[in-house]
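Lecture 7, part B: from sequences to assemblies.

Below are the input chains for today's worked example.
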Amino acid sequence: MTEKNAGWVVDVSMDPPSLEDNTADADRLKKALAAELGAESVAVDLFLLKHLPYRLRDWNYACRCVVFQTCGRWQLIDVMEPQGGQLAAGIAADLGTTRVVLKLIDLETGEVLAHSAFDNPQSDVGPDILARIHYTENPGGIQELSSLITDRLNREISELCGQADVSARSVYLMAVAGNTAMTHLFMGLPSRWIIREPYIPCVNFPGAFRADDLGIGLNECARIFVFPNSGSYFGGDLISGAYYAGFHENEEISILVDVGTNAEVLLGNRDWLVACAGAAGPALEGGVSEIGMTASPGVIESVRIDPESGKFDISTIKDEPPRGICGSGMIDLAAQLFAAGMIDIRGRLVPGACGNRLKEDDGMRHLTVVFGKDSATGEDLTISQADLDSLIRSKAAMYTIIETITGYVGISFEDVSVFYVAGTFGSFIRPRSAISIGMIPDLPEQTYRPLGNSSLEGAVRLLSSRSATAEIESIRDRITYLELNVNQDFMNRFSAAKFLPHTDAAKFPSVYQAV
Amino acid sequence: MTEKNAGWVVDVSMDPPSLEDNTADADRLKKALAAELGAESVAVDLFLLKHLPYRLRDWNYACRCVVFQTCGRWQLIDVMEPQGGQLAAGIAADLGTTRVVLKLIDLETGEVLAHSAFDNPQSDVGPDILARIHYTENPGGIQELSSLITDRLNREISELCGQADVSARSVYLMAVAGNTAMTHLFMGLPSRWIIREPYIPCVNFPGAFRADDLGIGLNECARIFVFPNSGSYFGGDLISGAYYAGFHENEEISILVDVGTNAEVLLGNRDWLVACAGAAGPALEGGVSEIGMTASPGVIESVRIDPESGKFDISTIKDEPPRGICGSGMIDLAAQLFAAGMIDIRGRLVPGACGNRLKEDDGMRHLTVVFGKDSATGEDLTISQADLDSLIRSKAAMYTIIETITGYVGISFEDVSVFYVAGTFGSFIRPRSAISIGMIPDLPEQTYRPLGNSSLEGAVRLLSSRSATAEIESIRDRITYLELNVNQDFMNRFSAAKFLPHTDAAKFPSVYQAV
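Predicted structure of the full complex, as structure tokens:
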């Protein structure tokens, strides 16, 4: 996977010192390394200096060097035996608000040696970013939240290394991708201004820190790279995703969309990038209705309604009896309800078309998606009119963000060659359904490409490529952030998008062809 | 003394963040600072990041920044209130083999706030470099020697700060100049190869470390700069001296000579530099004879012999009764003995001219410098023929080194506009006497200029100038080190220089005029 010497481990050999060339050991190595890397200079920690002279002599002035670079500054992290089998490992981390995922990588081959995932222990303090940042405003709160995640990471890293029979001392690099709030809390940085206008993080380019400084137990000279962010609402997880999707390489214009409570969108190519983020509402995360939940076994992921019989054909994850519905399931359901005429262009339930599935409860209409006899709980699984309204606001927000950002740049949807959809949502969403309700533009289905956990995979890719940090920093540098909170255009477009699929039917020709 | 903003403390002010400019606090400051410094990037420790957002807001995005640079890498060390009276201090250290001298400086004004000096505690382990390096080869020896000096430095720094009523937390920078062995032992680096052919240090450009990494208690983000060396025998003390003497500025050619057990010589100007070092023998350090000692009260610093009466006119330091003789006193004595005909051209005592001052002991001739009745001890103070032989070897070595280095470059002594003599030796030496015995070239007396503790003063100067490290590094980079151990030319010249003043009388016209 990794080309020899294209990664962070570099073979170097030097002429041994002589009376005619009395350059010191460290400077001799740094010079050879700088030439190999095309670097101006290379820094070395004191800890490594203490070992260097013995090792260089033992190995006759040849060695494999583990290096790292950030903000143009090269660091020599360790030297290893030239032909030895000593492993140089790295850890990629996706530091999610809810879930944290780790992969242990061989830095030389790119091979994944082990992986693990766990719930972010900060959830005990607060389920979301807002609650956690408020918590940091208590005395000692920042330190407490930071320790929660670092202590847990240390335990998980120790297990991860154990799985692959690797010593934590062999881990030289860690790459952490997360949203701006999560990375700030990980680093123990003040984050209270992230959530207050004008929404200013403590740092955009954290760069790399010694693992020790962050309280993480790896090699003594290991570096932990924290992905840069483009502001409070466009974090390192998205920059990592953009890197994984290849935004630094592609000449063609792409869009990357990550959907959660916020929808973040990146548009551009290797020459220019525009980003924006907006509240999409909880509907697309599965947090909307009583039966909404995130993807897991028994959760409804797709719905098919026979237009003749009105029969519901439900699929669940792992085919277990249905117990709830996730964001992509909701989109499928809404698309099918609309196609079957069971909801109208405003998303309102149509009594005549819903038949015995419609009931009224507390003065609000509900639709039974699964009858009690077929559900995991024995109860009816229903969605309310309010759930549908919420979904429509979310889909309208999503579409409007995409429309606003392309409009801002002055391109049409047809200029977009690939439309990446990140995250779990991206893996489950059916583009056809999302188009049907006017959530995403009416483009050929093959334009849409799920990216999976692109935040994690960008971090994995970083560990295998010596040019990664420079590419990631240049992605970050080229991003123009479009602030939607001050965008009047956005509000106008949003109103027009709150219909199924849209007030302007011409924007969704394929939907009307199908209907 | 320091021009506003020309030192390591820099005023910066920024536009406060807004929705239109959501750059993070740290990046906003780094950007403003980089512009002010003409730097490509500026790094910040995690510790400081944790405080930055509060301070920038308290001070409305204006502050005084303490910065440092080494190897082209800029570091932000701390931010202080924009108009506040908060002190930013630095410590200059001359880390001598025998003696350590410290000065506490106000980084903004250059004012010396306090100073102190103490014997290098490593002397308990071994008096000289050789003994100490041998000691490091015992298990734990490196750590032991390093702790000896760092523990003592911590105590002395605490006292130094106490003297000036300054908190050690206000010390942001420390500059340490010392010979290659002393700086290696301070940093705890392997030094065994410094004294073994081909004499290779662990590092030439240590750069700057966090004070914590070196075990020194200063500000949390303080940096300790260790002067670079040009090899095992041309250390950071001399580079510091060269910087103090202004070798990076002068168009005219200068020589810098530092005399101890080794004689180190630097020749050149702002465009080129050649260095060499050679064993000068202990004679010039006062370690040669029974009565030899380093400069202190009661030590003979000058001798005048009346050519008619043969009467000795002796001056001692602080005019106390004589108890020994230092290197410069020995040179004075030899010059006067030669002028009075009491030693011959080979430096041998001439019985007929020495009268009752000559005696024979254990088959060797001795000359009484001070009779018992006049000495501090009540005993005769004598020097032996062996002492004189040793002095002559030392002066021959010194002269030959200077002759070899100018010869190597292809210039004559007359091309040298200033001849700097560093150290205590430089402060006490009488150029006329040194010329008389052929130790230094026969140049006009005003060409010779004592530099004092140039190692310390170079470190002091560094603390006051933001361009210092770049200038020091460029001095180091331009030095070509001439290895005398492999120089046949040296051995030939050395034989010819073992006469008073020289076999070639034409080289010392002023001596023969005077005689």
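Note for the exam: The mean pLDDT of chain B is 93. Keep this in mind when comparing with the next example.
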